[in-house]
Amino acid sequence: MTFISDIGHLLLTADLWRATLEAAALLLLPALGGVISERSGVVNIAMEGMMLAGAFFAVVADLAWHNPWLAALVGIVAGGLMALIHAVVSIRFRADQIVSGIAINIFAAGLTVFLVNRIFGLQDVGHVSPSELLPYVNVPFLDQIPFVGRVVFQQNVVVYAALILLVVVQLVLFRTRLGLRIRAVGEHPQAADTAGINVYLIRYGAVITSGLFSGLAGAFLAIGISNTFVPNMTDGRGYIALAAVIFGKWTPNGAFVACLIFGLGQAIYAANSIIHVSPYLLSMLPYLLTLIVLAGIVGRSIPPAADGVPYSPGTE
Amino acid sequence: MAASSATVAQRPSPRIPAPIRRMARGIAVPVGSVIFAFVIGGLIVAVTGGNPFAAYLGLVCGGFGLLCSGGENPALQLSNTIVFTTPLLLTGVAVALPFRAGLFNIGAEGQLLAGAVACTVIGVKFSDLPAPILLPMVLLGGTLAGAIWAGIPGVLKATIGAHEVVTTIMLNYVAQWLVRYMIVGGPLQAAHGFSSSAPIGAGARLPTFLPNDNSLIVFGLPAGVYRVHAGLLIALAAVGVFAFLLWRTSLGYEIRAVGQSQRAARYAGVSVRRTIIVTMLIAGAFAGLAGAVQIAGVDHSLTDKYFTDTTGFDAIAVALLGLGSGVGIILASILFGALHAGGSVMQSDAGISGSLVLVLEALILFSIAANFLSTIKLQIPRIGRPGLPAMPGAPPRRGGEATPGP
Fold first, then answer.
1. Which domain holds residue B175?
2. Minimal Cβ distance to A109: which of B49, B104, B358
3. Among A248, B66, B88, B258, which residue's Cβ finds the most Cβ atoms within 10 Å?
């Protein structure tokens, strides 16, 4: 019984929910990218590699230029370039999008360690000094609200950015002409093409956007939450984001709910002094929950109709 | 006779026998992809201020024991390559078989880990049993665990259509965290402070080809350093079973039928659901066996090495590069085995990080998936066609070339 009351106690602390939101935001960015990409009909399992590239290049840029904003931009662009490879290979060359995604992840894992070795030799990458990290900013007045202020308004700038992007993506996808086009291209590209929509342009844009978002998440991880780069530091987060996309049934809001659930799990075991369950067992939860969703126990999760199908004009 | 010589005249290059021509056509894409990867990889090394030739010499030395500059022992390097090749053969089959049924098994890694965990559990718990009993037990245990790990996505796919790519990815991570749980603070941890299990019993170990006896000197080194083990024979047999199963049994026919067209297979009386589940079970069995063979043959305990194991992902490249054929899988496994064995020599001799191997692997995957070669050929037909002598069957056929001699 003490276990349950301990958990109950923990759930009442603002710090736990603050950590939950932070962890969720880190997952939300690549998940939003995944939603956009898959809604346009391009399967994206490459968020892991795009994040990793973003993390590495953000650290390198920050160490060189001592400016976190510029560094974040470099991370975003690095993620976008990774996505560009995925886009060219899977849209232009009509490659299998899953193979291409796996290749991106292997490529990023190999390239980052290779470059660490080339740039820093056998030494450590080095640490970014605290004043050159992406800052935590308290929102004036709002941060004084009891509980909510601590949870929502005393966060890293990237957390605010992620929440704004959530709203923007949800609105764009379901309330604008562009969103309608993206969804049309993902459901029935032939029909969209007939209606005068440039299928390739939409898909390129969607895939590259997913890379920009994932790159920002990587920068957040490396020079916001952490202060250095270590090999494979994303540690499966890109795949958890993929799980969130499916868990959330390919909608931004749904993905956010999934990220909050997965983030809560992470926050609970980060405060593990009172939890007597192995953090490793807890780490399985996002994947197991997604399996349960896929198994149809909590409602079916159905991808866009043309998801993963390369488009070539004139085929039906 | 005149009629038969006319038919011959219609075929291109009659001097090259048909089987060789077929083979050349099959080999063009994978060989081209590997060349593409090495060229781009070399550019990446050169751009970052390294010497690509030194890097690749290191790979050749480390992989095949040839052209060594750092005093490496060629026999040891070859032995290392074979050790790396062994699990790739098994996991390669575990990816290639579902490919034939139109299924993408990204989960070979998770299935391998499940097999490794099961093998370790049995090998540690029953460590006192003699080899004739314990060795089959650990190998079967690993095989079974892998089959179950792949069976879950198989059943989910067959019954409710959950995409096997996503379910196998999820199960990869479940397996990875399971390994961490098991040996860090979990039931398999050998002692506090170690991230490793206790060693499996002596009876659970696969014999090595050379005795583990350091007074015996083979090729200038103690025999114990050569780790090639009986798992190689198991793996080669598995590739044989794969080819036989696929081409000589009715199940293999059903697998191929389902892969070509589920609807057609259904009309032909094939149970698509049953075939999907059985295919995944067999694939998982091979991958699980790979995990068991690694524990029983090489590591003898579950260690933190398995946190970063990539054999199951390399297997995707092996299956694709090997074009899903038995011979192809063997050749591709040797290539990736050599690359992995060569990576460390490249690092020590040429100062180029062994991670370049991953970059090369990714480039090979890009190239095969995108089929850059044939696209380039389509784009620039004049340069493309004569530039690819390995595709003699490609139209248009030129009569002059094919006219038989007097």
1. 85-329
2. B358
3. B88
